[in-house]
Specification:
Structural class: mainly beta
Number of helices: 6
Helix content: 10-25%
InterPro entries: GerMN, LpqB_C, LpqB_N
Oligomer: single chain
Low-confidence stretches: 1-48
Protein name: LpqB family beta-propeller domain-containing protein
Shape: globular
Keywords: Signal
Largest sheet: 6 strands, mixed
Radius of gyration: 27 Å
C-alpha cells in the first residue's frame, strides 16, 4: 500500500480508540486523532447516475473523477461490476475544460450491448504521486469501453488513472507550498504541490506526506528533503481550535542535530500554510529537537532565503540615475553613487536581503559595465562588461548577481567583504533555445525563469562541485498562449508576471504552468518593456508612452506614473 493510500484512510473519528497506548478522546473534543489505517472500505457503487446514454455516461465519468473522496467513489458509480478493480491511483491527468466524447473509430462492429467511446481533449499535464504538477500540454485521445447491464450502460474498460478537468481539479485540490532545503546554503526553498482539500488535520497529514516524498522535478537538484528514506509517521494528532499538531516520527535517529533542525523547519513552514501554525515534533518518544520541542513558522523565518516585504513603491532607472517612486509620482534619486550622477546607469537591481544594489553603467566608449555596492553607498566594478549588459537579477541570499551579457548568462559572487568575483555557471541548456530576452531568479532561491525567443521557461539552479552551479532542465510554460514574451518578474514564490507583445499583453502564470490568469491590459500601448512585480505590491510596466501601474482590483485600469518616460526601468528588490 502506498503512503498516500494509507493517508487517505486516516481515522478522524474523535471517539474511536487509536494506536495502542493512546487514550480515547471525548466525543465533544475538537481534537482529531489520525493514524495510518488499512484500505478504505469499498463504497456502495449503486445508485442513479445522470446519463445512461454511452457518450454522456463517459462525460459524466470524467466530471465525477474530479472528486478524490473515498477512492473516487462518485466516479466508481459509473463502472460495471467487472471494472471494480479500476486503478484510480495509477495517474492523474489534468485536462483543459473543453473535451468531447465520440464513438471511437476503432470501435469495430459495435453490438447492441457494447461500445467504445473516445475521450478527446487537451492534456495540460499530470500530477505525480508526490502531488507535483508536471506540465506536458498536448492533444490526447483515450478510449473507454462501455457495456449494457440490464437497462443501464456502465463502463467496463476504464483507462488506468483519472482524467480531471482543470476546474474540477481546482475545486477538489488545494495548492500547497511545501518547503525543502538548499543542500549548499542550508536554507529553505518553496515548492508548489497539490493536496486534496479537507479539514486541517487531513491537510497536515497530506502535507507531511509531500515532505516525505521530496521536491518536484521542477526543483530537482536544487533542493532536498531532510526526511531520510527510513522516516515514517508513527502517529499524529491535531487540535484545529488551538491551531496545533503533534507528530511522532520514526526512522530519523541517524540525523545530526543540524539536520533535525532543518527537518523541523520544513514541517513548521509547510504546515503553517495549511492552518497549523504550531507543531510538536517527536522522534521515538522524545522531542525531535530537544531545545525546541514545539516549532512554528515564525521561529524558523531566518532559514527562509526570501526577502522581506517590498517597499511600497518600486525603484526606477530613469535619465541615468536610480530613483525611488513615491505616492505623489515623484521619482527622487536615491542616495549614493547609484543616484547622484556618478555613473550613466541604464539598468539596476537591488537585494532586499543583503541591502546591495547592482547597476549597469554606460561608459563613454559605449562599453557597459556591471557594478555593485551597498544601496546608498559607493559602487565597485565587477569583472563583467560588454557591449550589451542587461536583465540583472539577485539570488535569494543576496550574495550573487546574475546578468545577460552579449547574449550569454553571467554570474558574479558578491561576498560580504572583499571584491566581487565571477562565479562559474553551466548554462548549456540555454544555448539551443535562441536569444535570451530576460531572466529572473526566484526571490526565495532555487529557480530561474528565462525568456528565450519569446517563450517562457522555468528550471532549477543546481549546485555542482567547487562552487559552480548549473541551470537544470527547463520546461516551457503554456506554449501557444505565452508567446512573444518581452519581460518577466516573480510576483510571489510560485507566480510569475509576464508582459508580452501579443493579444494577451499581461498575464500571471504559476511556476508549474498549471494556472494562467490574464491581467487586464486596459490603457497599455504596445510595445511593452520592463516589468516590476512583488507580492502585495502594485505591478509596474513601461509601454510606448511611459511607466504604468496596476493595483490588481477587478475593475482597475493601468494608471500612468508621472515624470518617467518609455525608457524607464522599474524594479522591486529581489
Amino acid at each position: 500500500m502506498t503512503a498516500r493510500r494509507a493517508l487517505a484512510a486516516l481515522v478522524v473519528t474523535v471517539a474511536a480508540a487509536v494506536v495502542a497506548g493512546c487514550a480515547t478522546v471525548p466525543q465533544q473534543s475538537d481534537v482529531q486523532v489520525l493514524r495510518q489505517g488499512e484500505q478504505a472500505a469499498e463504497q456502495n457503487l449503486s445508485g442513479p447516475i445522470e446519463d445512461d446514454e454511452p457518450l454522456g455516461l463517459v462525460r459524466g465519468f470524467v466530471y465525477r473523477s474530479g472528486s478524490p473522496d473515498d477512492r473516487h467513489a462518485q466516479a466508481r458509480r459509473y463502472l460495471s461490476a467487472s471494472a471494480s478493480g479500476w486503478d484510480d491511483a495509477a495517474s492523474l491527468t489534468v485536462l483543459d475544460e473543453r473535451f468531447d466524447t465520440v464513438v471511437s473509430p476503432d470501435n469495430g462492429t459495435p453490438g447492441p450491448d457494447r461500445m467504445t467511446v473516445r475521450v478527446r481533449g487537451t492534456r495540460l499535464g499530470t500530477v505525480g504521486p508526490n502531488g507535483a504538477f508536471e506540465s506536458s500540454p498536448q492533444r490526447v485521445e483515450v478510449d473507454v469501453g462501455v457495456v449494457r447491464e440490464g437497462e443501464r450502460w456502465r463502463i467496463d474498460r476504464p483507462p488506468p488513472g483519472v482524467m480531471v478537468r482543470l476546474s474540477d481539479f481546482r475545486s477538489h485540490y488545494r495548492e500547497l507550498q511545501a518547503w525543502f532545503v538548499d543542500p549548499v546554503r542550508r536554507m529553505l526553498l518553496p515548492d508548489g504541490h497539490y493536496i486534496r482539500g479537507g479539514r486541517p488535520g487531513e491537510l497536515a497529514m497530506d502535507a507531511v506526506d509531500v515532505l516525505l516524498r521530496g521536491p518536484s522535478t521542477g526543483l530537482a537538484g536544487a533542493a532536498v528533503t531532510m526526511f531520510p528514506a527510513t522516516a515514517r509517521i508513527r502517529s499524529a494528532t491535531t487540535d484545529p481550535a488551538a491551531g496545533t499538531a503533534s507528530i511522532e516520527l520514526t526512522g530519523v535517529s541517524g540525523l545530526s542535530p543540524q539536520d533535525r533542525e532543518l527537518l523541523a523547519a520544513q514541517v513548521a513552514q509547510t504546515l503553517g500554510g495549511v492552518g497549523v501554525p504550531r507543531v510538536e515534533l517527536l522522534a521515538d518518544g522524545g522531542p525531535l529537537v530537544p531545545a525546541t520541542p514545539t516549532v512554528s513558522a515564525a521561529d524558523q523565518a531566518d532559514l527562509v532565503a526570501g526577502p522581506g516585504r517590498a517597499p511600497a513603491f518600486p525603484y526606477v532607472v530613469d535619465a541615468g540615475r536610480v530613483r525611488q517612486l513615491s505616492a505623489t509620482g515623484v521619482a527622487a534619486p536615491v542616495a549614493g553613487q547609484a543616484g547622484n550622477g556618478s555613473f550613466d546607469i541604464t539598468e539596476a537591481a537591488a537585494s532586499a536581503r543583503s541591502g546591495r544594489i547592482a547597476v549597469v553603467s554606460r561608459e563613454s566608449t559605449g562599453t557597459q559595465r556591471l557594478l555593485t555596492g551597498p544601496l546608498g553607498g559607493e559602487l565597485t566594478a565587477t569583472p563583467v562588461s560588454g557591449a550589451d549588459v542587461r536583465s540583472l537579477s539577485w539570488n535569494g541570499a543576496g550574495d550573487e548577481i546574475w546578468a545577460v551579457v552579449n547574449g550569454r548568462l553571467r554570474r558574479v559572487l558578491v561576498p560580504p567583504s572583499g571584491p566581487p568575483v565571477e562565479g562559474a555557471v553551466d548554462a548549456g541548456r540555454l544555448t539551443p533555445l535562441g536569444r535570451i530576452g530576460d531572466i529572473a531568479l526566484a526571490r526565495e532561491g532555487g529557480r530561474i525563469a528565462v525568456v528565450a525567443d519569446g517563450a517562457l521557461l522555468v528550471g532549477p539552479i543546481v549546485p555542482l562541485d567547487d562552487g559552480e552551479v548549473a541551470v537544470g532542465p527547463l520546461r516551457r510554460l503554456r506554449p501557444g498562449e505565452l508567446d512573444d514574451v518581452v519581460s518577466i518578474d516573480w510576483h510571489s514564490a510560485d507566480r510569475i508576471v509576464v508582459a508580452s507583445d501579443s493579444d494577451r499583453p499581461m498575464s500571471e502564470v504559476s511556476a508549474d504552468g498549471l494556472r494562467l490568469d490574464q491581467i487586464p491590459g486596459t490603457n497599455l500601448t504596445a510595445p511593452l518593456g520592463a516589468l516590476a512585480a512583488a507580492e502585495g505590491r502594485p505591478l509596474y510596466v513601461t509601454d510606448r508612452t511611459g511607466l504604468w501601474s496596476y493595483s490588481g482590483g477587478e475593475f482597475d485600469a493601468w494608471q500612468q506614473a508621472g515624470g518617467t518616460g518609455a525608457a524607464a526601468q522599474p524594479f522591486y528588490p529581489g
